[in-house]
Amino acid sequence: MESFDFIVIGGGMMGAPCARYLAEAGHRVALVCPPEPARYADSAGPFASHWDAARITRHVASDPVWARASARSIARYSDLEARSGRRIYHETGALMAGLRDGPLADWTAGFLRVADGVEGAARLDAAEVRDRLGIALPVGAVSSFEATGGGWMDPRAMRAAQTELAQAAGATLIPQAATARAGGTVTLADGSRLAGGHVVVATGPHAGSDGLLPARPAMTVWARTVAFARLSEAEGARLAALPSLIWVPEGWDHDLYMLPPVRYPDGRLYLKIGGQKDGPTIGSGGAMRDWFHGTGDPQVGARLLAEMRRVLPGLDVEAERLGPCAVVWSRTGYPYIERLDEHVTVLCGGNGASAKCGDEWGRLGAVAATGGDPSGEGYPEGFAAAWD
User: Fold this and answer.
1) Where are the domains of the chain?
2) By C-alpha distance, which of 58, 126, 42, 118 is closest to 92?
3) Signal peptide: which range, if any (predicted)?
4) Whole-angstrom distance, CA of residue 27 vs CA of residue 165
5) CB–CB of 80/268 below 8 Å?
6) What is the pLDDT at residue 238?
7) What is the CATH code for 2-34+42-51+155-216+332-376?
8) Pairing mode, if any, of strands 55-57 and 151-153?
9) Cβ-count burial of 147 within 10 angstroms (0-12 exposed, 13-18 middle, 19+ buried)?
10) Do strands 336-339 and 344-348 pair parallel, antiparallel, or not at all (unpaired)?
11) Could you tell me which residues are beta bridge partners of residue 3?
12) Angle, vertex CA 200, rays to CA 197 and CA 201, nearest 5
């Protein structure tokens, strides 16, 4: 067996930067990370929602822990871009909007408090948002607008940059899945094995069902539907100044998110929208495979696209499509970042917001794996795992 100081299983938004930080610290690292499937419908997995072109990035959040992680990660985007030669960050501005009353009043109050400490974040009412940005929010909505420092990031480019920089620092990329772990020994899909002094399990939504951890993390994996509206070049140009948007539609008890026009790998421009409170949960590898072999829930998709048209009056769409997504919610509301024993560290629990701040969570994963305390890194909350 080939031997390493650390084996990081999972090359997503947390695992890839964790491997980079470990390799750049001089450790011998293996990053076990299967490539993106050519077509989900033909793949047995593992699956990952970060195989996408855009995720919202912003400093403002309803929770100061997430806001701090975001700020630290965003501050490092330019270094990652410069060293990798990849475009990761697109500064289009970011708008968060909510209502002061109703079921999400505390959420609104939370992001407004955080926004008061973010340089350049301005409060706008619904009329100002419509006049300045062309976005039709519910009457009475209050928002925070980051004209600078917010926008969107490309998770594929981020993952590629982190992986390439990890390799440049000496890490070995293992482009296949891990199927088992016994102590520091990891078995791969082809039957071969790797020996590691320590293993970091960063397998996202699969962490609850892949058997690589000593117990099941207390987390819920939600099957989510996302919707895409394809735009003509002219309509994309008309909407080119749109910011990333998180808002609560009138009468809703949860928020939605929408990206500005983004060019996807097929060369077309798309608006993407998502956000869902309930829906099916995923508890096994088979259920995950079945979900990602489909195209999402058509009823959820129709509601999302209707709200897209409501918030963007006059929107002209060429075509619409839906897609599957999976979101992990931990019991604590924060990632699980903990060295469990001499053999394994857990690094999972994105809570629907990890793409933009994955670099920081990956850094903290490296801190934990090497025996440090992530809660001593300037955060008011710890990141200890909870278990079912």
Assistant:
1) 2-34+42-51+155-216+332-376, 71-154+220-330
2) 58
3) none
4) 14
5) no
6) 97
7) 3.50.50.60
8) antiparallel
9) middle
10) antiparallel
11) 195
12) 135
Arithmetic mean of pLDDT, 213-227? 96
Question: In which band, very low, low, confident or very high, does the pLDDT at 134 lie, cut at 50, 70 and 90?
Answer: very high
Q: What number of other Cβ atoms are within 10 A of residue 6's Cβ? A: 25
d(CA 179, CA 189): 6
Q: Return the ∠ at Cα 119 (arms to 113 and 123), rounded to 5°.
A: 55
Position with higher pLDDT, 249 vs 40: 249
Homologous superfamily of domain range 71-154+220-330:
D-Amino Acid Oxidase, subunit A, domain 2 (3.30.9.10)
Measuring CA to CA, which residue among 40, 368, 371, 21 is closest to residue 201?
Answer: 368
Average pLDDT over residues 183-207: 97
Q: Mean pLDDT across the chain, nearest whole number?
A: 95
Tens of pLDDT, residue by residue over 14-44, are: 999 999 999 999 999 999 999 998 888 888 8
Report the largest interatomic distance among the alpha carbons of the chain, rounded to a whole angstrom.
64
Q: Indicate the pLDDT class of residue 133, thresholds 50, 70 and 90.
A: very high
What are the C-alpha distances in Å from 22 to residues 41, 169, 381? 34, 9, 23
What the block records as the tokens of 260 is 């500005």
Which residue do the tokens 């910011």 mark? 243
* CA-only gyration radius of the chain, Å: 20
Q: Are 354 and 13 within 8 A, CB to CB?
A: yes
pLDDT number for residue 42: 86
- pLDDT at position 95 is 98
Which tokens in the block code for residue 104? 């999400």
